[in-house]
Amino acid sequence: MRAQAPNLYSYPTYWAECFGTSEYLPMSRAEMDALGWDSCDIILVTGDAYIDHPSFGMAVMGRLLESQGFRVGIISQPDWQNTDDFMQLGEPNLYFGVTAGNMDSLINRYTADLRLRSNDAYTPDGEAGKRPDRSVIVYSQRCKEAYKDTPIIIGGIEASLRRIAHYDYWSDKVRKSVLIDSAADILLFGNAERAIVELTHKISRGIKINELGNIRGTAIIREHMPDDWTEIDSSRIDWPSMWPKEAASNKNPYDYDHNPTTNEDCASKNEAGKKKAEEVKEIKIVPMPLASKQKLDFEKTYIRLPSFEKVRNDSALYAHTSRILHLESNPYNARPLMQRHGTKDVLINLPPIPLTTEEMDAVFAFPYQRKPHPKYGDAKIPSYDMIRFSVNIMRGCFGGCTFCSITEHEGRIIQSRSQESVLKEIEDIRDKVPGFTGTISDLGGPTANMFHLNCKDDDIQASCRRLSCVYPTVCKNLKTDHSETTSLYRKARKIKGIKRVMVASGLRYDLAVKDPEYVKELVTHHVGGYLKIAPEHSEAGPLSKMMKPGMGAYDEFKRMFERFSKEADKKQYLIPYFIAAHPGSENEDMLNLAMWLKKNDFKLDQVQTFYPSPMAMATAMYHSEKNPLKKVRYKSEKVFIPKELDQRRLQKAFLRYHDPKNWDVIRAALKEMNKPELIGDGENQLVPASENTRTVNYNKNRAKSGRRKKPTRR
Question: Are 31 and 334 in contact (CB under 8 A)?
Answer without folding.
Answer: no
